[in-house]
Each structure stands twice: as structure tokens, then as C-alpha cells.
Design a protein that fits this description.
10 strands, TIM Barrel, 13 helices, alpha/beta, two-stranded antiparallel ribbon, 8-stranded parallel beta sheet
Length: 344
């Protein structure tokens, strides 16, 4: 069965162009103004960090957090948008310098779990059951500084606390092999799914795969997606592109390797992705050189490329492909795929 595709992105994907080597180059845009652009760009879902949804949440009471989240819910409803997920932002607070769940400080670990439970409260108000965990600082700069086995057990403890807090939430682990930490404890989707099976409720722990994160691990994103699909645990994707094994670039989807992008679309469509409500998320950044008035083009471009590749996937003669595979004529299969991508 072919897939059903609707698209999401996060407000951080419209940004000011700052990077580690230079300050912002474009003026900021208010959050509500960003939300007003979603439908115009062809997007229906909003990816949210907890403090995107509720600014300064560490300073608010539970009732204040709920009121603030309810205000955002009304705004989303007015714009015809839905929250795809909420992700606790555990990597920017001073208490998470040494990791959140894996910090060597018990008080800091407690803070990370409490913050994650607040994210669940926000998600419930916004009408989503998906909580994304990007274990950004759950790793180490020096292997001797942490007990790696204990670190995994501490991540598992946090996941189990979240599962117990709300019996309906789904936890999506977003693996990445490095950056900001030298070494991450859950670097690939295999590690994430392995942790899921250790949890108290494996049916509610799955994965979000980002294209660039897989590439940074030296892996092909479509293979990572296929692995998660085999476990029925691919619950979201963040599509983008990556020019080699360097920093996380978040380039527009398909802008570096069109064939690699094609294969991701192939895998998603041929496995019926989206038929259970999953979103195709774009996690892409505008080039630093882009002018403010054109600082959303990367989002429109990524969606356009996805849909163009989807048309190519669906135009292929399935019987012909099966015949070439049966004949083991992979050279001919390859040239016919490339011809299709070239529009020939």
C-alpha cells in the first residue's frame, strides 16, 4: 500500500542564520508569524520543543504551564495546524552540561526527568501523544568520565519514568552519533530500538530518524528507516541532506545526493508510511547567505523535492523492476532508475 504524506517542520527551521563562527544575519521572526506561514508553505504539522510551546517553563507553575499551552492550542486550531510532537529541551540548561539523564550529578538527573514530565503535560494539552527524545548530551567527551553501562541504564530509567507517568504517550528516540558530544550512548536507530525492548512497555517506544544523523554515522538513511520499519517503530522522520561526514548541516532534502533522497522516498512510500498518521518532517536550515525575505525557501524546496521524487517512485514499472531483480540484472536496474531521475 502506498504511503500517505503530510508535512511538518519546527519553528527553529526559520532562523536568523547564526552559526558557531558568526552572529545572526537576518532579523528574528515572532513565533506566531512563523505559524502563519505553515499552510502557505504546504505544511500541516508543527514540531515543538517544550519551551517553544511554553516559553520560560522552568519559571512557571503547573497551572501556568497548562494555561500557556492551552493558548498555543487555540492558535494552532485557528491556523488549521496540529502539534506533531513535543520534545523536552534538555541540552541548553546549565544543569545539563554533563548530560541530562546521564549526568554524574543526581540533582541534575532529577531535573532532566522532571523537565521531561512537564513536556508530557504540554503534549497532552496540545493534543499529541508523541514525545521526542533527542539525547543530545547523553554521551561523553572522555570515556573514562562515565560508566557507559550505567549511562544506558539511567536513560532507560528516565524512559520508564515517562512511560509510567502517562500510559498513552509514545516516546520517539532520535539517535545521533556525535555533536554536541564526542560520543553518544544511543548513536543509531539500532541502539534506540534495543533500548525500546528493554523498557517497561516496548510497544510505546520507537524511533525518529533524521537523514543527516544517519549519514554522520556512516549509514544510509533509507536502510535505517527500513530497519525501524521492520520493527514497526518508525514513527517520524526528519528529512534533510548532508555533504559528507562533518557537522550536522541540515541542508535541504535532496540537495546533495538526489539518489540517496530518492531511496528514502522509495522506502517510505513502498512501506505505507504515513497511513497511521505519521508525518514527514523537514529539519532543514536556510543558508546563512539567504536574505530574510527568502528565508523559508528551503522548506518549500524540500517539500517540492520530496513530492517530485514521490512522482518518480510511483511512475516506475513495478513488474519491470521485479523482472530485472529476478534476472539479477542490477546494472540495467540501476540505469533505469537513473534515467527516471533524469526524466528520460
Amino acid at each position: 500500500m502506498p504511503g500517505t504524506f503530510r508535512f511538518s517542520f519546527g519553528p527553529w527551521n526559520i532562523h536568523e542564520g547564526a552559526d558557531p563562527f558568526g552572529p545572526p544575519v537576518r532579523p528574528g521572526m515572532p513565533f506566531t508569524q512563523k505559524l502563519a506561514l505553515y499552510k502557505k508553505l504546504g505544511f500541516d504539522g508543527v514540531q515543538l520543543h517544550d519551551d517553544d510551546a511554553v516559553p520560560n517553563l522552568n519559571e512557571l507553575s503547573g497551572a501556568q504551564i497548562e494555561r500557556s499551552a492551552a493558548g498555543l492550542r487555540r492558535t494552532l486550531d485557528d491556523e488549521g495546524l496540529v502539534a506533531e510532537f513535543v520534545a523536552p529541551r534538555l541540552w541548553e540548561d546549565p544543569r545539563t552540561i554533563d548530560g541530562g539523564f546521564t549526568s554524574n550529578d543526581e540533582n541534575n538527573r532529577r531535573y532532566a526527568i522532571e523537565r521531561s514530565l512537564k513536556a508530557i503535560d504540554i503534549a497532552n494539552v496540545l493534543g499529541t501523544k508523541k514525545i521526542v527524545l533527542w539525547p543530545a548530551r547523553e554521551g561523553t567527551y572522555i570515556r573514562e568520565s562515565k560508566d557507559a553501562r550505567l549511562a544506558v541504564e539511567r536513560i532507560l530509567e528516565a524512559v520508564n519514568r515517562m512511560l509510567a507517568y502517562d500510559p498513552e504517550i509514545l516516546i520517539l528516540i532520535e539517535p545521533k552519533p556525535n555533536e554536541p558530544m564526542d560520543q553518544a550512548y544511543l548513536p543509531t536507530v539500532g541502539h534506540a530500538i534495543g533500548l525500546a525492548y528493554l523498557s517497561d512497555d516496548p510497544s510505546r517506544v520507537g524511533a525518529l530518524i533524521e537523514s543527516a544523523h544517519a549519514i554522520l554515522a556512516g549509514l544510509d538513511p533509507s536502510d535505517e528507516m527500513s530497519y525501524a520499519l521492520a520493527h514497526k517503530k518508525l514513527w517520524s522522520v526528519h528529512l534533510n541532506d548532508q555533504n559528507g561526514l562533518k557537522y550536522d548541516q541540515d541542508k535541504s532534502f535532496g540537495s546533495v545526493d538526489l539518489r540517496r533522497a530518492f531511496m528514502q522516498v522509495w522506502v517510505l512510500d513502498r512501506n505505507g508510511y504515513g497511513n497511521n498518521g505519521e508525518f514527514v518532517g523537514m529539519d532543514v536550515k536556510a543558508m546563512r547567505t539567504q536574505r530574510a525575505e527568502e528565508a523559508t525557501q528551503h522548506l518549500a524546496n524540500s517539500r517540492e523535492i520530496f513530492l517530485a521524487l514521490l512522482a518518480v517512485v510511483r511512475s516506475l514499472d513495478t513488474a519491470r523492476i521485479d523482472q530485472l531483480i529476478a534476472q539479477r540484472n542490477y546494472e540495467q536496474l540501476e540505469i533505469e532508475i537513473i534515467r527516471a531521475l533524469m526524466g528520460r
